Amino acid sequence: MGIQAFAAFEARQELHSHSYEPDPLGPRDAEIEVSHCGVCHTDISLIDDQFFGLSSYPLVPGHEVVGKIVARGADVSNFEVGDRVGAGWLCGSCGECEACRSGEPNLCPGAQGICAGRPGGFAERVRVDSRFLAAIPAGLESEQAAPLMCAGLTVFTPLDELAVQPGTRIGVVGIGGLGHLALQFAKAFGCEVTALSGSPTKSEEAARLGADHFALTSDAEAVQRLASSFDVLLVTADGDLPWNLYLSLLRPKGTLWLLGMPQQPLAVESILLMLPSRSIKGSIIGSPDQMQRMLEFAAKHGVRAWTEPMPMSDVNTAIDRVRKGEVRYRMVLTAG
Amino acid sequence: MGIQAFAAFEARQELHSHSYEPDPLGPRDAEIEVSHCGVCHTDISLIDDQFFGLSSYPLVPGHEVVGKIVARGADVSNFEVGDRVGAGWLCGSCGECEACRSGEPNLCPGAQGICAGRPGGFAERVRVDSRFLAAIPAGLESEQAAPLMCAGLTVFTPLDELAVQPGTRIGVVGIGGLGHLALQFAKAFGCEVTALSGSPTKSEEAARLGADHFALTSDAEAVQRLASSFDVLLVTADGDLPWNLYLSLLRPKGTLWLLGMPQQPLAVESILLMLPSRSIKGSIIGSPDQMQRMLEFAAKHGVRAWTEPMPMSDVNTAIDRVRKGEVRYRMVLTAG
Fold first, then answer.
1. How close does chain A come to B268, measured CA to CA in Å?
2. Of the candidates A266, A282, A298, which is a domain's last residue?
3. Which chain A residues are within 8 Å of B279, Cβ to Cβ?
4. Which of A265, A270, A281 sits opposite B262 (nearest CB)?
5. Which residues of chain A have a CB within 8 Å of the CB of B280?
6. Virtual CA dihedral for B37, B43, B44, B46, nearest 10 degrees?
7. Model pTM score
8. Fewest CB atoms within 10 A around its CB: which of A26, A288, B222, B239?
9. What is the pLDDT of residues A322-333, one digit of tens each?
């Protein structure tokens, strides 16, 4: 029985209905009936064939999936049919390398993405290796949980790895799909949180999302006043940003952590790294373990994606709103 | 009574004899009779006025000082007259900022250097705030200890802060004054050590210094074979290096640590940082606590600078050999 989905048939085009025959259900696989699927900017990049040449058409986007398991392979023991689960970008890895064996298949050189060569969640159902799924805690609504599967995990990972704690001074550059979750997570960790945005209209919302302070990135004096003030700067914006200025906002031993993916090389002054012993680091997504802990943390501490729901049949309208940057803060497609 | 020293009187010139009246001995100060002083590349940069505008003339270089205390201020209780001590670059800080209060005055924005506005160790005596001195362990010869005060501390700091341990895979780029000590320290920590150098003649010496492996940086294939192999890459060379190539030599979560100070901005590809979650970090010197621990570690584990001694009266010949890159691996001026 084929799976009904929405697919791009060539780069930069609208999606159309698409039915495909899934690969046989592997012993480790689970089939999920999709109830919700977030729309990530990476989906747009994939549709447009602007993501590392990973696009192949027909391309079914969608890697912020929530739904119920309707079938499982013989070797799946961690989930039952009927369980509500989430799937993110990661859906496969070599299983043999050091990263895989240390529980970080997201860092495997052979890591596989759910929309890159395999169909994603803009569909009625999707099949995913159950080792990369997470259980959705009871307290999380599916609509608010879906964006956590990619955007939430992406911003949780640096907070987890840097072991931030109450009092850690964090700046979040870019208040969008990622940034609005970063503010909430950082606040829930007890951090002192500053939002940096190019949109003055986001000041009030940033405060509601947990920001203690707000700085307009177009206000040079306001940004300068933040010099040497952050332990961590999470940069969720992409584009060609003033990297040396942002580095100068870090305290000694501070870390600038890239979460957007700038296309241009970063021209970094070594003295800004060396004298105060600052770091630049980056990551995408996180490990399956971090994914599960992130969801439980979000459920417990009230971290919720701010969503705009839309029926999956209106997928092209949804994508158009994401392209225009109109969504505050995450578009979520709903089944039916 | 004036202090006899050697000073540059203008940029890029030879040093000449120079007598100066020291500031009164402060309550925290110690006066050191210099027995040995290493010649660091930063001394050359200071002589040439190519170090952040910090040079003022007459300029007495020398910040790898070892000698005996011959006088001390009223509030000095951690050292006695006659103690053998070492002084490095750091000689002052604000004492009030977060870095100072957390024991890291080296990261104080107001940190002061011994040759930058204050006379250094190319002299018979030098006065330094005793809070920035370290005791030289009995097992270390002064000639071998002197280069540890700057070069040794500089390479010890990242190993200490990254908490490297037996099995950590470390590459050292550039086998000179810093690099030859980095190989020894890394080996003494039990690490798997690879030396990367542009000089094929250094292969055999690198092995004697503790390197398990050697790669010639001009051999593109040899370097490519090291892809994704290091946890830590200590870059002691300066200049405009192939940063993206070096980043690609790091394993997931690996750290490239800058110890030379490149003049040109580093044009870094974000994808090389983000996909494998790598870091770029940098530092200069280290804290007074790290300085003392570094000396004790060196004494215990047999880390010794390979030195070329020369009487201080031949200072210009010594500097000339450093300028020409002829010294293997550290020139040390001796009293008299």
1. 5
2. A282
3. 255, 279-281
4. A270
5. 268, 273, 279-281
6. -150
7. 0.97
8. B239
9. 999 999 999 999
Token pair belonging to B118? 């204050």
Q: Identify whether residues A17 and A144 lie together within a single domain.
A: yes
pLDDT level of residue B85 (50, 70, 90 thresholds): very high
CB contact under 8 A, A277 and B283: yes
**Looking at the partner chain, which of A107, A265, A278 has a beta carbon nearest the beta carbon of B277?**
A107
Calculate mean pLDDT across residues A289-295.
98
pLDDT digits (tens, 9 = 90+) for B145-179: 999 999 999 999 999 999 999 999 999 999 999 99
Residues facing A133 on adjacent strands: A87
Beta-sheet strands, E only, within A76-124: 84-87, 90-92, 112-113
Residue A66 domain boundaries: 3-150+286-334
**Do both B299 and B327 map to the same domain?**
yes
In CATH, what number is assigned to the domain containing residue A101? 3.90.180.10
Angle between helices B151-161 and B179-188 (to 10 degrees): 40
Chain A residues closer than 8 Å to B253 by CB: 104, 107
* B contact test, residue of A234, A236, A280 with most B CBs within 10 A: A280
Interface test with B, best of A273, A278, A285, A290 (most B CBs within 10 A): A273
A65 and A121 both lie in a single domain = yes
- Measured between beta carbons, the chain A residues lying within 8 angstroms of B50 are none
Residues B90, B157: Cα–Cα separation, whole Å: 14
Q: Which of B323, B171, B178, B147 is nearest to B261 (CA)?
A: B178
Tokens representing residue B28 in the block? 């925290």
Residue B52 has what pLDDT? 87
Last residue within a domain, chosen from A282, A300, A324? A282
- The number of domains in chain B is 2
